[in-house]
């Protein structure tokens, strides 16, 4: 078995030696900026230039989900588990500034936007749905319809509300939700 410690470094040395020996000595990789200015890049009409956001990372005030519990977790010595105790908090306040954000995307000529819905805002307690949150997301979609041709909404199971974690469910889904949210 000790012979592996001799053969493997030898093979690696031979490999890099051959790479060096057979390299193209005249090759000078560089980016020709003048050529880029002359020959514009072309994308077909169906190409999507877009943006994507996660509700928990941009909306702010997501305090009823497993990510908030993760951000708030402390170790045995009482120190935050995240460096410097950073939290999403208000984020960039997309919840209140979505109209301005959509105008910024429009100004960048983006033609697609993938966003997520924060389920813990839609269903803050098991079986109780927040009409205000549903109306908010309906307003976001209406604003997107006016300004963005393609809208892709998603709900992530990783952004589960804390009440969702406590629900009785199948052992597999319960185990996945518990693993994602049961931090001390």
Short description:
The chain is built from nine helices and three strands.
Can you tell me about this structure?
This protein is mainly alpha-helical and 184 residues long. It has one domain (48-181). It has helices spanning 4-21, 33-38, 55-58, 66-72, 94-107, 119-122, 131-147, 162-166, 171-181; strands spanning 50-52, 112-117, 150-155. The two termini are 45 Å apart. 16% of the residues are buried. Residues 168-184 have low confidence and may be disordered.
The structural class is mainly alpha
Radius of gyration, taken over Cα atoms and rounded to an integer in Å: 25 Å
- Largest sheet, described in full? 3 strands, parallel
> Which residues form runs of ≥5 with pLDDT under 50?
168-184
Q: Secondary-structure element sequence?
A: HHEHHHEHHEHH
Q: What is the number of E strands?
A: 3
Q: Count up the helices.
A: 9
Terminal Cα separation, in Å? 45 Å
In total, how many domains does the architecture comprise? 1
Spatial shape: flat
- Percent of residues in helical segments? 40-55%
Percent strand equals 5-15%
Mean pLDDT over the full residue set: 78
Sheet with most strands: strand arrangement: 1-2-3
């Amino acid at each position: 078995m000790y012979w592996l410690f001799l053969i493997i470094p030898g093979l690696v040395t031979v490999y890099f030696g051959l790479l060096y020996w057979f390299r193209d000595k005249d090759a000078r990789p560089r980016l020709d900026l003048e050529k880029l200015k002359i020959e514009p890049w072309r994308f077909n009409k169906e190409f999507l230039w877009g943006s994507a956001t996660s509700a928990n990372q941009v909306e702010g005030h997501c305090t009823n989900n497993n990510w908030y519990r993760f951000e708030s977790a402390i170790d045995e010595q009482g120190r935050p588990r995240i460096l410097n105790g950073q939290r999403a908090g208000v984020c960039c306040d997309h919840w209140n500034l979505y109209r301005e954000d959509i105008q910024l995307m429009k100004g960048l000529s983006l033609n697609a936007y993938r966003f997520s819905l924060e389920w813990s805002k839609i269903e803050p307690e098991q079986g109780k749905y927040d009409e205000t949150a549903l109306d908010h997301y309906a307003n976001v979609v209406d604003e997107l319809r006016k300004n963005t041709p393609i809208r892709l909404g998603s709900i992530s199971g990783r952004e589960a509300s804390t009440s969702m974690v406590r629900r009785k469910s199948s052992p597999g889904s319960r185990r996945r939700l518990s693993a994602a949210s049961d931090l001390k």
